[in-house]
Design a protein that fits this description.
With 297 residues, the chain is of the alpha/beta class. The chain is built from 8 helices and 8 strands; from the N terminus they run βαβαβαβαβαβαβαβα. 51% of the residues are buried.
């Protein structure tokens, strides 16, 4: 296991304080425990805390990369409150939380929380990177124009990203409505349906549809429930661990990932598999990120 956290060292990975300073850390963890529009199982507001807690059990040596990504520094920003009953205000809050770190050139990882809040982070990235595209792992297309009376429902995040003018590439999709399918068929979104994506998975082809600068968003229900049961809207099928690593290798090797998020963890008391998989996924991404940036730990 990783080194246990001591008093005051409760951030991502539980690192000693000298490796978590805001001034020197390459990676910044931004908690986004927003939950207003969940429509099945609730509890995503507890996702960031559960991921951070599980991360403190992740081994710090990456045997694939033969390095220790944590040595690049990992700062965990403090949690903050979102305005109640004000979805647009919540998006602005998330935007303001992410934008300063992007301006400083940090690699930002936002933890959710429901998927709707991704919009605020993507807005911040889009202002800085005009050619921004988005790679979206999910079980659901999330292309509804509105749901339950809100354009900021978690089922609408894909549509809101398209509204920003960001090319959107989706992977793992296996649940959608007829209008969403028509939007995909019209060419507004590049979607790789889970059942139609052959093995070996064509990850190089997937990445080829992305611009040089990419925001990477992971709804955890895009992963097979065998690895990720703790989500609010689970779906049979999905990506396994090797799928995730293969896609991330292809992505980080050929595009500049400016920020990413890991969303929709709905912790199950007494069951820590999902929490740990989410934390491990983030640490693997940090390793690929560091290698791409030429800053191996």
């Amino acid at each position: 296991m990783s080194q246990p956290a001591t008093a005051g060292e409760g951030g991502f990975l539980g690192l000693p304080a000298r490796h978590t300073t805001a001034a020197k850390s390459r990676f910044v963890i931004v908690p986004g425990g927003y939950e207003e529009t969940t429509t099945y199982v609730k509890g995503t507001s507890r996702g960031p805390e559960a991921i951070v807690a599980a991360s403190q059990q992740v081994e710090l040596y990456d045997e694939e990369l033969s390095n220790e990504p944590w040595k690049l520094g990992v700062h965990t920003a403090p949690a903050f409150a979102f305005p109640k009953k004000d979805p647009e205000g919540a998006m602005r809050t998330m935007d303001r939380a992410v934008a300063p770190w992007l301006k400083k050139g940090r690699r930002v990882v936002m933890l959710g929380g429901e998927h709707s809040i991704t919009l605020g982070a993507v807005r911040a990235a889009k202002r800085q990177y005009k050619d921004l595209s988005v790679l979206h792992i999910d079980a659901h297309a999330d292309l509804r124009q509105s749901y339950h009376g809100s354009i900021h429902n978690h089922a609408c995040i894909g549509a809101r990203i398209v509204d920003l003018g960001c090319p959107l590439v989706q992977v793992g999709i296996r649940n959608l409505t007829a209008p969403e399918h028509r939007m995909i068929r019209a060419g507004k979104v590049k979607t790789y349906f889970d059942v139609q994506t052959p093995r070996p998975r064509p990850w190089s082809e997937v990445v080829s549809h992305l611009s040089p600068h990419v925001y990477f968003t992971v709804d955890l229900d895009g992963i097979t429930p065998a690895l990720m049961p703790a989500v609010g809207t689970p779906e049979p099928g999905g990506l396994d661990w090797e799928d995730l690593l293969g896609l991330m290798r292809a992505l980080f090797a050929s595009r500049e990932v400016v920020a990413m998020d890991v969303m929709e963890l709905c912790p199950i008391p007494g069951q820590i598999l999902s929490d740990f998989v989410a934390a491990k996924l983030i640490y693997k991404a940090m390793g690929y990120w560091g290698r791409a940036d030429g800053r191996n730990g």
